[in-house]
Amino acid sequence: MANDKERRLKIALLQMDVRAGEPEANFAKLAAMLEEAAALPDKPDIVVAPEMWNTGYALERIGELADPEGSRTKSILSAFARKHGIHLIGGSIAEKRERGVYNTAYSFDRQGRLNAAYSKIHLFRLMDEEKHLLAGDAPGRLAVDGETAGMMICYDIRFPELARKLALDGAKVLFVPAEWPHPRLHHWRTLLMARAIENQMFVIACNRCGTSGDTSFFGHSMVIDPWGEIVAEAGEEETMLTADIDLALVDEVRARIPVFEDRRPSLYAD
Ligand SMILES: O=C(O)CCC(=O)C(=O)O
Fold first, then answer.
1. Model-level pTM?
2. C-alpha 190: how far from its chain's center?
3. Rounded to an integer, what distance in angstroms lies between the CA atom of residue 93 and that of residue 68?
4. Which residue of the set 51, 95, 129, 179 is catalytic?
5. What positions does the domain CN hydrolase occupy (predicted)?
6. 8-260 falls under which CATH superfamily?
7. Among this protein's residues, is 83 annotated catalytic?
């Protein structure tokens, strides 16, 4: 380490293709990509998966396809995190609970303990999510190696208030699992950069790639620093995107332009 303020983390994002309605194929693909990530010469500290990777958007059959209580997913992800000592942001899955199916992201610490679960708050009507899924009712806060972070899922990034709330609660990193399709690549990149710049935090966004029916997903997973610079960005193909980040940059940027001190919420916050 160059100085004792550095707080470096290696990140690997699993930009995977997802087969709609085929959980077995998706579990196998995720397991293969996880092992590939763990075997990288520069072993990652954090691995991130995309949204709804177990079922894709097979919403008509989601009740039968979703993982009951997420138990299969949790046991696989927890075992991986513990075995390799890697913090895992396990994307999100279709998770079946008594009341219905949720789009839920799990976070496992390096000991394999589930340290956060976040169910997507904003359901995306353009893809009929609200007809088949239930919305979560709490923001996604978590800790990564003692640092505060947040999780939002896909469409959530259109809601700047949520990212701001997470930042105000101390998040230095925002993780975003997604299944964001063409033709809105411009929205994806711009919104992610905006969330990073306005909140002066790292944004680590893992999108799926490939095609389901007539919807094509463009990948372009991204790691963006608190100054809004793109640290890494994937293309449209299935790949593992890696990046090194230094969390000390968050404090540097926040000291340079003290947005959090200068805000005047009494004039414009609800
Ligand atoms: O907001 C968008 O354009 C895409 C959102 C989306 O695909 C999702 O939330 O699943």
1. 0.97
2. 17
3. 11
4. 51
5. 9-247
6. Carbon-nitrogen hydrolase (3.60.110.10)
7. no
